[in-house]
Amino acid sequence: MAHDTTVLVLGGGSTGCGIARDLAIRGVDVTLVERGNLTGGTTGRMHGLLHSGGRYAVSDQASATECIEENEILRDIASHCVEETGGLFVQRPEDSDEYFREKLAGCRDCGIPATVLSGREAREIEPYLAEDVARAIRVPDGAVDPFRLCVANALDAERHGARVETHAEVIDLLREGDDIYGVEVRHDSGPGKRTHATPGTTEEITAEYVVNATGAWAGRIGAMADLDVAVRPSKGVMTIMNVRQVDTVINRCRPKGDADIIVPHETTAILGTTDEEVDDPDDYPEEQWEVDQMIDTLSELVPIIEDARTIRSFWGVRPLYEPPGTGTQDPTDITRDFFLLDHAERDGVGGMSSIVGGKFTTYRAMAEEIADHVCAKLGVDARCVTAEEPLPGSEDIAVLEEGMDSFGLRSPIARRSKQRLGSRAPDVLETNENEANPVICQCEGVTRAEIQDAVEQSGSDLNAVRIRTRASMGNCQGGFCCQNMANELHPRYDEETVRDALDELFQERWKGQRHALWGEQLSQAMLNYALHATTMNRDNDPANAPAQVDYAQFDGGA
Amino acid sequence: MAITDDVLVIGGGLAGATAALAAAETAPDARVRLVTAKQSTLRHASGLIDVLGYAPDSEGQGQEQEQGQGQTPIVDPFAELDTLPTGHPYERVGGEAVRDALEFFDDIAGDAYAGGHTDKNALVPTHGGTVKPTARYPTATADGLASDDRDALLVGFETLPDFEAPLAAAHLEAAGAPFDARGVTLSFPGIVRDDAKVTRYAHLLDRNEQVAAAGEDEIGAREALAAAVESHLEGEPRVGFPAIVGDDRPAAVRESLADALGVDIFEVPMGPPSLPGLRLEDLLYAALEDAGVRMTSGVPVVDYETGNDAIDHVVVDRNGAEIPHEAAQYVLATGGLVGKGIESGRERVSEPLFDCHVPHASDRYDWFVDDVFGEQPYARFGLAPDRELRPLDANDDPEFRNLRAAGAVLGGYDYAAEKSGAGVSLATGYVAGTRAGEESE
């Protein structure tokens, strides 16, 4: 039987995109399907920490060792996604000396460069650290942009011939007897790039082998073929500050606990997190106390956070897993290691493996191991090169830095654009001399050329444009720029499509702001509401209203 | 020694300016002073004077309502004023006061504004493309009304991403506007930087600066703009531009363009920074000067003293020096959440100058609903006044005998949903200022 594709990867997060890239480079014909946008599940909902491994140096040394190895690889192959911030494990007076010593020893055991700083030395690096911070361990933690990294993997997979379908939700696994041979998907707006207001279609995609890389949703996919994949989804909150109170990753040096990390991320700092098991990865409470806990507890490390402005909060769901019978009660004790479940070996059902557990920093190593496994199944003899081959955007970065071309942009904007685009900057920003390239998003310094490049990749989906460019992710949370981003869709897309795309983005931006509605951000929210409702009348737009407006009734002029 | 006035208005937006003007008119011999802490929010405002575009609390509106199931706009806002719920600022001051306030505004605005010839709302296309109901509009916008069935050419500029003219034209069609609209996107003569400020466009036209023209020597910016538009005209009798058509001399610029093209010219109101909003501010400040209102700007009120259930004096901070200001009557017009006349923390919403009572839910997760355009409780935050516009405390007693409040610092209405912001500022500013003037004597 002829298949549509050799390997079908389910899930467009870091794991799925990493597997698709790895296999595609090895010459395997790959299709990837994702129900929403790339990173739409857990990948786009993490704190952006590139682990040094320090966090696991006491509790899970195998993971810690793997983290430091992958940390070094990503600095190399994904340099345009990584900011080498460094990290501190900070000890307060009430935190245990013994644990501090264990942490230091653990780092050294795992090959994680670690140095001890006095409280004063730590405050020289991070002046806003609390006065009573006793000492700290310095490690090579970093910040990573999960959106950019994931999209770069998908782009490179496509360059190597892969088909990547977003907004294609798996609605059934195709199983015949003890063999899984593909899936049925529902395309939100037909195959290819997403276009709003286009009717959906369904498609059966058959494959020689299926890889279920849907993380916290893996159990749901398994159930479609009566397979039991006991993922234990665990939610965690992250609260985004409007500026960077710190330029170094700040970890609390104590065994485990909620609200113990601050990650500087682009223009913001992200506070995290909690760890609480949930039943349904799509439907769980997002609660006030979780946000308050982030602010109150992390203020013990960085006191100015208490009164600082947050712009939104979001929750992510970890795809935790442990083998049947382990019986761990507290989700914080469940291993962060990943598991490859070969359903042929495990359940006697061939044609599919599921990947569960794992963490973002080690996505590439996971992908390599899974790709090796799939290649063995398929009899493909090709070596993994993803540890050496830079991702699109991280190629020839030295050449870019030498050139320092500002592409006709004012220097802060050019600098930000180049940080985001890396080595793709000349391709994207070198617009025709006669074409204007105004700034579309002032907060993040995103120009028309960058927006158009993202639209080219992702269709009319403005959230997909957002994750590629950071447009609408700054202080105003899209109040000033959402409609300008939507304007950029025209005339490629018609007016109704643009209107739908704008409504969807604006509502998405509101979703996270609901958890930051006090102080400056409540004022900002009111301003955004006023601009969009008062001036643009988007809340009562006659174009959306069921009843036709009788224009002749109104003032037609003096 | 305190600086002594009869009426002290705090806040320099539309409500504060109107209150000061009304006080000065009511009590010609009174000393009226306006103190402002910072730039007003008029730079965010479209410059349109809304009275009431949609009914509040009407059936079908609210949290459960799906987006896209909007109401139709109110034709005659004045006819609806008596139907508003108790506590709405219009209900507090009464429908007659709203009419009086609009007349008062019409006198101040003179020929800079239009719409006073009828009680009916106008439907004005704004930069997003659709129309919004409003009661008064700048003369610059008068030829753009959507009930006017003449065809229109909309002109946008490559370097002004806030207004995508072809998209706006298509949006007007989707909104059912009774005329054909077309849009074109041009490059603006004389704009060399992609991130030029809107005032740069306006000043090019104001001063008719010499700009490079194709195949010619330099010509005036107005002629160059008209020439760029001319080849795109297909017989439309009116042409709309984003609201950058002049800053200091908008009428002259429109006239030049109209003469050159043989069409009527109108402006499409834009988002911030909004020149029509800033022109309205200029107009108000000129009127304040003419009326002899004393102006002190850049001075936040930092403290106050009371006596006898009344405010005795307030203290302002002038470059670090604390200066007492004493008056018989005070008007608080410091704005809402946007203007920072209303502030909030994680636990509480407050009025920062006098700590007047602001009704609100104690749980901040009850301050919002999940639909961004649903019935948002936060949009109604503000002071609850009596019919004299004196802010009431939690027991419904006036906070101070001689303090009135006007504009967005008042609560109980959602100006964004109702399209009532400017109207409430005018009506409450007018009433608060008039009463303060009367009682100061």
Automatic annotation (TrEMBL), chain A:
Location of the BFD-like [2Fe-2S]-binding domain: 439-489
InterPro entries per record: BFD-like_2Fe2S-bd_dom (IPR007419), BFD-like_2Fe2S-bd_dom_sf (IPR041854), FAD-dep_OxRdtase (IPR006076), FAD/NAD-bd_sf (IPR036188), G3P_DH_FAD-dep (IPR000447), G3P_DH_GlpA_su (IPR017752)
SUPFAM superfamilies named in the record: FAD-linked reductases, C-terminal domain (SSF54373), FAD/NAD(P)-binding domain (SSF51905)
GO biological processes: glycerol catabolic process; glycerol-3-phosphate metabolic process
Membrane topology reported for the UniProt record: Peripheral membrane protein
Domain FAD dependent oxidoreductase as annotated: residue spans: 7-349
Cellular localization per UniProt: Cell membrane
Enzyme Commission code: 1.1.5.3
GO terms, molecular function: flavin adenine dinucleotide binding; FMN binding; glycerol-3-phosphate dehydrogenase (quinone) activity
Pathway(s): Polyol metabolism; glycerol degradation via glycerol kinase pathway; glycerone phosphate from sn-glycerol 3-phosphate (anaerobic route): step 1/1
Main localization of the protein described in the UniProt heading: membrane
Signal sequence coordinates: none
UniProt protein name: glycerol-3-phosphate dehydrogenase
Organism, scientific name: Natrialba asiatica (strain ATCC 700177 / DSM 12278 / JCM 9576 / FERM P-10747 / NBRC 102637 / 172P1)
UniProtKB/TrEMBL annotation, chain B:
Root EC class: oxidoreductase
Keywords assigned: Flavoprotein, FMN, Oxidoreductase
Domain FAD-dependent oxidoreductase 2 FAD-binding: 6-424
Enzyme Commission code: 1.1.5.3
Gene Ontology terms for molecular function: glycerol-3-phosphate dehydrogenase (quinone) activity
Domain of life per record: Archaea
InterPro entries named in the record: FAD-dep_OxRdtase_2_FAD-bd, FAD/NAD-bd_sf, G3P_DH_GlpB_su
Coiled coil: none
Record's GO cellular component terms: glycerol-3-phosphate dehydrogenase (FAD) complex
Pfam family membership, one: FAD_binding_2
Gene3D superfamilies: FAD/NAD(P)-binding domain
Protein name stated in the entry: Anaerobic glycerol-3-phosphate dehydrogenase subunit B
Organism encoding this protein: Natrialba asiatica (strain ATCC 700177 / DSM 12278 / JCM 9576 / FERM P-10747 / NBRC 102637 / 172P1)
Upper lineage: Archaea, Methanobacteriati, Methanobacteriota, Stenosarchaea group, Halobacteria
